[in-house]
Design a protein that fits this description.
Layout (H helix, E strand, L loop, with lengths): L1 H29 L3 H28 L1 H9 L6 H40 L3 H26 L4 H24 L3 H28 L7 E3 L14 H10 L2 E3 L4
Helix pairs in contact: 1-2, 1-4, 1-7, 2-4, 2-7, 3-4, 4-6, 5-6
Length: 248
C-alpha cells in the first residue's frame, strides 16, 4: 500500500520533472548557456523535491485516513474488521519511513535527470545499482528475513538505500562546474559532427551510376511505382545524403 502511494507520487512528480530536466539541461549546455542550465536544474529541484515534500507531509499527517481508505472496513465480520484495524495500525507505524523515502526519492529522481542531461548516464547507473539494489533491496532482505525485523526491515533497507542514492546524486549535482559541463557538451557536439561528416564522406564516395541523384529523404520507388523504402529515406534524411534513384 505504502509503496503504491510512493510510486504514484514519484511518477507524477520527480520522474516527469527529471525527464524534463534531462532535456532542458542538455539543451542549455549544448547551446553553450551554463547559467541557464544551472537555473533549469534548480527549478527542477524546487518543483520535484517540493512536490515530494508536500506528499510526504500529507502521507505522514493523514496516514490513518489514507490507510483506512486503502484498506476499507474489512467486510462485515468481526475478524475481518479486526484484521483491517491491525493493517491500518501497521501502516501508521511505517508512515514515517515512507515519508522519508519520498523526500529522498524526489532528490534522486531529479538529480538523475540533471546528470543525464550532463551526459553522465553511466555514473547515475552505477549509483543506482549500488544504492538501490545493493543497499536498498539486499539490505532490506537481510533485515527482513535475516534479522527478523519483518516488514519494518524491508522499509529500513528501502529508505536507507534511497536516502544514500539521493544524497550521492545530489552531491554530484552540487559539485558540477557548469562552465566545464558546457565545454564538454561543445566538445561532444564537435566530435559527433566530425563523425557524421566522415560517414557522409564515406557513403558519398560509394555513390555511382549515371542516373540523376535524388534526395534520400524523398520517396524512392522500386520498379514501376512499388513500395517506398522508408528506412532508406529516413537514413538519408539523417545523413543528409543523396543517392541515385534505384532502378529494377
Amino acid at each position: 500500500m505504502l509503496l503504491n502511494i510512493c510510486g504514484w507520487t514519484f511518477v507524477a512528480g520527480p520522474m516527469a520533472i527529471g525527464i524534463a530536466a534531462n532535456v532542458r539541461v542538455g539543451t542549455e549546455l549544448g547551446a553553450g548557456r551554463p547559467l541557464a542550465a544551472r537555473v533549469a536544474a534548480l527549478v527542477s529541484y524546487i518543483f520535484g523535491v517540493g512536490w515530494m515534500g508536500v506528499m510526504a507531509l500529507i502521507l505522514y499527517f493523514r496516514r490513518r485516513e489514507l490507510a483506512t481508505f486503502m484498506v476499507g472496513g474489512g467486510g462485515g465480520g468481526a475478524a475481518e474488521v479486526a484484521e483491517a484495524g491491525r493493517v491500518v495500525d501497521l501502516v501508521c507505524e511505517l508512515a514515517l519511513y515512507a515519508a522519508l523515502f519520498q523526500v529522498f526519492d524526489g532528490v534522486l529522481g531529479v538529480s538523475g535527470g540533471v546528470l543525464r542531461g550532463c551526459g553522465r548516464q553511466k555514473r547515475v547507473a552505477q549509483v543506482n545499482v549500488v544504492t538501490l539494489w545493493g543497499v536498498g533491496v539486499l539490505g532490506g532482505l537481510v533485515a527482513t528475513f535475516g534479522l527478523g525485523c519483518g516488514v519494518f526491515g524491508l522499509w529500513y533497507g528501502l529508505a536507507f538505500g534511497v536516502a544514500l542514492g539521493g544524497s550521492a546524486t545530489g552531491f554530484m549535482v552540487a559539485s558540477l562546474d557548469w562552465k566545464k559541463e558546457a565545454d564538454r557538451a561543445a566538445d561532444g557536439a564537435a566530435l559527433s559532427a566530425k563523425h557524421a561528416a566522415g560517414a557522409r564522406s564515406r557513403m558519398g564516395s560509394r555513390v555511382g551510376g549515371k542516373t540523376p541523384p535524388v534526395p534520400m529523404s524523398s520517396p524512392v520507388y522500386f520498379g514501376g511505382g512499388g513500395r517506398t523504402d522508408s528506412f532508406r529515406a529516413a537514413l538519408g534524411a539523417a545523413l543528409e545524403l543523396e543517392l541515385p534513384q534505384l532502378e529494377v
